[in-house]
Structure formats: C-alpha cells, structure tokens
Amino acid sequence: MKLKLYADRMSQPSRAVLIFCRVNGIDFEEVKVDISKRQQLTPEFAEINPMKKVPAIVDGRFKLFESHAILQYLASAFPGVADHWYPADLFKRAKINSVLDWHHSNLRRGAAPLVLNKALAPALGLPLNPKAAAEAEIILSASLAKIESFWLKGNGRFLLGSLQPSIADLSLVCEIMQLEVLDDEVRARILGPHKKVIKWIDDTRNATQPHFDEMHAILFKAKEKLLKMHSDAGSDQTESSRKPALPSKI
Amino acid sequence: MKLKLFVDRLSQPCRAILIFCKMNKIEFVEVRIELSKGEQLSPEFKEINPMQKVPAMKVDERFRLFESHAILRFLAGAFPGVADHWYPADLFKRAEIDSVLDWHHANLRHGSAGLVFHSKLARLSGRPLDLRAAADCEKVLSASLAKIESVWLKEEGQFLLGNSKPSIADLSLVCETMQLEALDEKDRKRLLDPHEKVRKWMDDTRNATQPYFDEIHGVLFQVKDKLKEMESDE
C-alpha cells in the first residue's frame, strides 16, 4: 500500500513534506485537502487527523501528523534517504532537532500569521488583521535576524554550517517562501537586510529542483490572484458609490 | 561524558530535563540561571545559548545544545541504561511521541506558560502583568487540555498515546501543567476540574517519577507563597 500524504500546497509544512518525498524518490499518493474550502474540517479528514490540520500521512495502518515528526519518520523509515537529511550521528541530529523546535515559536509564529493577517485571510473567508500582522512581523524579523547571525554560521551553505541540506532547511525555507504572496516592496523590506538568508533560500531551492519550483507554483498563482483582487477593488472605488472590496475565495 | 545543565527550576522545560536525568541516573552538574534576576541575559550565558533561554546543556566543554525536546532526545540516545519507554527505538512509537512534542509548542506550552507568566510570574522579574494576553493564552490552554483528553490520552495505558510507561512527552507536558500551581487555587481548579483524565495522568506521571518529581517542583510551591506575600503587600 502506497504512502498517502494529505496536503495543501498552500501550506508551508505540506510543501516541505512533498518536496522531501520527491527528492528522495519516496513513492506516495498526494491527497489534496483544500483549506480554502475548509476540507480539513470534514469528519472524513478528522479520522485521518483529529487535530484537523495538514500535513498528515497514512502509511499502511500508521497515521501521523505534525510535519517535523513526519519528516523525521520518513527519513528513517524509507531506504535510500541520504544521511544528510536527518543524520544518524547523535550530535548532528540533536542540532537539527533544536532548529526544528526553535522554529515553532519563532519563524513559524512570525511568518505564518503575518502572511495570513496581511494577505491570505480573505481567501479563507476571514478578515485581515493589521494589528496581528504588525505583531507577527516583529517576531518574524527577530527570527530572520537569528537565522542570519546564528543558524547560518559556519562553512556550509545550509543551516548549522552544513554542506548539505537537512529537513530543517526544507521546513524553514518553505515557511519563508510564504512571504511571496505579500507585495514585493513589503517582502523586500522584510527580507532585504538578510543577505545570508536570501542566499540560503536560493541554495535550498537549487538543491531540490525541479520539485521545489513545482510545489511552490501555487504560491505564485495565489499572488497573481491577490494582485488582481486589489486592482479590481481599486477600480471599483473610483466609482462615486465606493463599493467596499468583497473578499473572494482564491 | 561530562554534562552541565543550565537551568532554573521555575522553568517548566528545565524541570522535565532534571527529572529525566535523575530518574535515569545520569550524572550532571546543575548550573543555576536565575530568570527573575535576568541571569539568562548575561554575556557569559550568551556563549552557552545565544537565544538566551533555559534550559541549555554542555557536554565535555565542547558540545552545546538548547531546546528542551532536543535535549531530552539527545540524552535518551546518548546515555546507556535509559529505558526504552522514555524515547522508544521503535520508529512508529517514536514518531508518535515526536508528534506530541511538536504539538506542544504552539498549544499547551503557548497557553499554559503565557497564562501563568502574564497573570502571575511576570511580577517576580519586576515586569508588569498583561491580563489581556493572559486571557488569550487561557483560551489556548483550555483548548489544549481538551485535546489532551480527547486525542492524546487513550482508554488503555496511563500515559500519553496509550502507553503503559511514561515517555519524554509525558514529562515535558506534565511539567508544563504543573506551572498552573502558581495561579490562585480557585483559578487552577476552574481550569483543571473539567479534565479528570488530565488530572489522573498528571498524578500517574508524578507517581512514576518520585521522589524526584516533588523534589524538583519544590521551588514552585515556594514561589506560590512568595507571590501571595507580594500581592498582599500591594
């Protein structure tokens, strides 16, 4: 029975797992769970993951959720996964675990709510929240600074000075890629100061092509739709009636 | 391997590591970093952990590590004689424990630690309370306790994931819920009373790790008295 991966490519951790499987030749069936259509809230999906989130996997009878746990499991369970993704060496592995742990309350906690509250919320039928976005941006900027000054120290191009990417690189870079849906000037303002981060994103992308671009294509489509929404709203508001912009489902 | 642990017993993740080491007879030197005095912000400690947080550890004066879950996993793998149930070698059991540990950060930890800090412990370091933030965190805490009851605790087994013996996930999460001792008794009861399974699980985890559990948590009860004093002075 093939591995089943329940994912939405708009979800950062879903993309990390998808890319990991592709790069490592892990055979799987991608089951799309469309968050914008609230498919994660169906009773059928609750059987897969009672926390009602993506990504989740089913491997035979074994079900698992939480992307880091999934990545750690897949790295160990499937033959042919190169050691650098999640090294067997206890010391190297521990360091990768510490980045993955740090991520939850730092990069993820900054980047995800910023993009949601500043851009993506209407696609999910939610209102934008500039205050929450501003608070999230502070956490994001602090996190990017920590990646620049600490996690990217060393000889290699990847986190922890590694010469090859690990599951930590995949997880964190997929998170930062979500910023693509923001206005270019906003994205440039946030990322611009961090030259090492920008290079690292590129290196991780290059190391996982063509799968990286394929899994991220949806983000660029989402960006186009958002731009179109804004410009439609702009042209509406030149009318004297000043209709408010209606949120549309992407 | 010479192990140094940089900890404050008032910190939930620190307690989990201390109890784990004592249970498994892992020798270590405990270096106290007192958060209420801002000691985590010293330049010396920044050398140990540039994120300026506890817990942190150092092995043989050369290998440094922070983030309590990474530390617990490392210790379980690095020291002989650690029983398998703490962090099983079986890939499936291990993955399930990993998923609880991951879930913890943005759920139980975020809710519980935030509530207790913003409504009580901030005073200890002379910081102002933030009751609005505390209220937000309380919502996350209540939702998390409900999830522990409905998803993580099963019919069989006393511990998380239906296990009959505790894992590092039980230690991490129970040390977090113990922080609620710092709240007023009525608030603590209000939050925990609805969750009978959670209360039993906390008890089971405590019993499975005595006498170290009570020893390491002693500081929490001292702080509770100190907070009462501070509040009655106002």
TrEMBL record, chain A:
GST C-terminal domain boundaries: 89-227
Keywords: Detoxification, Transferase
Keyword Transferase in annotation: yes
GO MF term (any one): glutathione transferase activity
EC number: 2.5.1.18
Chemical reaction(s) catalysed: RX + glutathione = an S-substituted glutathione + a halide anion + H(+)
Origin superkingdom: Eukaryota
Region (Disordered): 231-250
InterPro entries: Glutathione-S-Trfase_C-like (IPR010987), Glutathione-S-Trfase_C_sf (IPR036282), Glutathione_S-Trfase (IPR040079), Glutathione_S-Trfase_N (IPR004045), GST_C_Theta (IPR040077), GST_N_Theta (IPR040075), GSTT1/2/3 (IPR043377), Thioredoxin-like_sf (IPR036249)
Family assignment from sequence similarity: Belongs to the GST superfamily. Theta family.
Entries under PANTHER family matching the protein: GLUTATHIONE S-TRANSFERASE T1-LIKE ISOFORM X1, GLUTATHIONE S-TRANSFERASE T1-RELATED
Protein name (record): glutathione transferase
From TrEMBL, chain B:
Enzyme superclass (EC): transferase
Annotated GO biological process: toxin catabolic process
InterPro entries cross-referenced by the UniProt entry: Glutathione-S-Trfase_C-like (IPR010987), Glutathione-S-Trfase_C_sf (IPR036282), Glutathione_S-Trfase (IPR040079), Glutathione_S-Trfase_N (IPR004045), GST_C (IPR004046), GST_N_Theta (IPR040075), GSTT1/2/3 (IPR043377), Thioredoxin-like_sf (IPR036249)
Name of this protein: glutathione transferase
Ranges for domain GST N-terminal: 1-83
GO MF entry, a single one: glutathione transferase activity
Catalytic activity annotation: RX + glutathione = an S-substituted glutathione + a halide anion + H(+)
Homology family: Belongs to the GST superfamily. Theta family.
Residue ranges annotated for the GST C-terminal domain, each copy included: 90-230
Entry keywords, A to Z: Detoxification, Transferase
Organism: Coffea arabica (Arabian coffee)
UniProt-listed Enzyme Commission number(s): 2.5.1.18
